[in-house]
Design goal:
216 residues, Rossmann fold, 2 domains, Two component transcriptional regulator, LuxR family, DNA-binding, NreC/VraR/RcsB-like_REC, EvgA-like, DNA binding
Length: 216
């Protein structure tokens, strides 16, 4: 069994690693702290049997990382492990492809149960959550954007998240160690896939995947 933990807080990664090992002593665990590190790990061919993913990550915006990873690697189940405990956020995560959702306040003993359920092909949710219904959880804008995000390549996704952070093409090229012309080509392709005309519209568009506390 090979599990990848993706969380930018070292102390929580350590705690989660210990909790998983307590439930599954023979498991192999790898850790990454950002979306870039996550993709670098996956692109090396080191596909895990399961990913435990935080929602608030450097290099991501809201549910964007979950949506994109599930599209690029549909055979890898993802359990979200997050401090967000609002019912609508949990249900939106499932609607965007998560196979389970573990609040960070949950009893560590539940982690083994959740992992086993997901590996068996089932969805695992906190016991106190109301019955899950996919209907009307995500707005039409959110659903449409998720489909467009899924069409991006991993490199285009990285570039989009850097655009959202306000970085210029020159800065993005430096960070990714490619030419500025390559970044311009990526940005053009991103605009086309998102059906937007400029950076401002792109940033506004991905706002549909933000994490908030909307009430049903």
């Amino acid at each position: 069994m090979n599990i990848l933990i993706v969380d930018d807080h070292p102390l929580f990664r350590h705690a989660l690693t210990q909790a998983v090992r307590h439930c599954m002593p023979q498991v192999q665990i790898h850790e990454t702290a950002t979306v870039t590190e996550l993709y670098e790990h996956l692109e090396r061919g080191e596909e895990p049997d399961l990913v435990l993913l935080d929602l608030n990550l450097p290099g991501a915006s809201g549910f964007s990382a979950l949506v994109h990873v599930r599209a690029q690697y549909p055979s890898i189940p993802v359990i979200v492990v997050s401090a967000h405990e609002e019912t609508t956020i949990i249900q939106r995560a499932i609607a965007h492809g998560a196979m389970g959702y573990i609040p960070k306040s949950a009893n560590p003993n539940l982690i083994g149960e959740a992992i086993q359920h997901v590996l068996d092909g089932d969805i695992w949710l906190p016991a106190n959550l109301p019955p899950y219904s996919h209907k009307d959880i995500c707005s039409a804008d959110e659903t449409a954007l998720a489909e467009r995000i899924q069409s991006l390549t991993p490199q285009q996704f990285r570039v989009l998240m850097m655009v959202a952070e306000g970085l210029l093409n020159k800065q993005i090229a430096y960070e990714l160690d490619v030419s500025e012309a390559t970044i311009k080509a990526h940005v053009t392709a991103i605009f086309r896939k998102l059906n937007v005309q400029n950076r401002t519209q792109a940033v506004l568009a991905i706002g549909a995947l933000r994490i908030d506390e909307r009430k049903m």
